[in-house]
Amino acid sequence: MNQSPNPIIDPQRPLAEFHGRCALTVMAKAPKAGRVKTRLSPPLNSHQAARLNIAFLQDTIACLRQVAAIASATVVISYTPAGAEADFAGIVPADVALLPQRGDGFGARLQYTTEDLLAAGFDAVCLIDSDSPTVPRGAYVDAVQRLLEKESCAVLGPSDDGGYYLLGLQKLHPRLFEDIAWSTAVVEEQTRQRAAEIGLPVHSLPVWFDVDDRRTLARLYRELQVSGSGGAGFPATHTAECLRALSDSLGEALLAPVSEIAERS
Fold first, then answer.
1. 104, 105, 52, 71: which is closest to 221 by C-alpha?
2. Domains of the chain, earliest start first
3. Would you state the pLDDT for residue 190?
């Protein structure tokens, strides 16, 4: 039984309203303390990390909703664990559809999310991480436009740690999710290798960064708080507000790594 105000997508009941559209799909965990952003503890405690995770999710959705307003796209949250839809109430706008993840392992969940959304009626799917709240809106617009042009391709948004913040597909290609060393610095490279194996052209988006450790948290803090702007990225106002509140209690714990990064740049 759906305990959330959000609609739940049923892959076995395709909807005509999804035809001709790209699903901008955020891969998300239920934002529970101790289960999300665990690599940010320390400097954050589990509750602070969960608050930041919620802010990331809110900003990513805000950016994608702007994309959906100007492109043929629909925002979707692919969530885990199944049955946790109520945990997104008050965080995800009520008009944003949810899709429960299935499969064992991250690669399987990405594959089945793609399969389920294509079965639900979408013409294309973008799999998007929930750790990159400042990705420029234009990158997502470019991905949607490329995928809906009908020319066979994949779209990849590389992260500077060797992963990716977006993978866009028009068809299900299981090989793209096989034999990948997930959560390592070779995910992007191996994904491109798999695409080459099956003869699938890859269109690249701008390189960006995700936030999953103390160093990248310091980088985000510097860009949104210390410099006073998000640079060329999405402004991420929920994240900026959350970091501002955290800085009151953490102080040097956030500022110290910023100095280290500045020395290396």
1. 52
2. 16-204 (3.90.550.10), 214-264 (no CATH)
3. 98
